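FIELD: query
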Amino acid sequence: MPFLLVSSLSGVEKTIEQYHPSHLVTLLSPEYMIDTPHQIALERHLRLALNDVAEIWESASPPSAAHIERLIAFGRSWNAHAPMLVHCWAGISRSMAAAYTLLCDRAGPGHEFAIARELRARAAHAFPNPLIVRLADAALGRNGRMMEAAASIGRGEIVAEGTCVVLPIAMAQL
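FIELD: result
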């Protein structure tokens, strides 16, 4: 069964060793951007240099519409024959919003709430970055449903770092 993985930066190596993903999405601040791990082909590593902020004015490197367009295009290029790993610093906010975006895109309109509920069921610590969700909602033409669904699952369990979470692509068909 194809799936997305979400982890923290500190969990990337272990997650790659355990699950052998074919694709990697890195969402880190520009000053902390990593090189492509040797197990991942360079063209299968999307590196998005952005800060974990909820509003554009809060940072010199906020998430942008261009970042979301690149994320969606990268997700659409993935054939799902092997897992895709999505990570940020803590595996809580940016990476969860990116995974939510990828699943919502794959599912098509109307599945935003079911995917958000399943995300919460699998990751008590998930708190999808609201700016990324807002930009993805606009890019995918969801008319606020992604934002409303993400808000409906609440802040989640407060932790310093999330654990590795497996998100089956089947979630996109809920």
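FIELD: remark
The first helix runs from residue 12 to 19.
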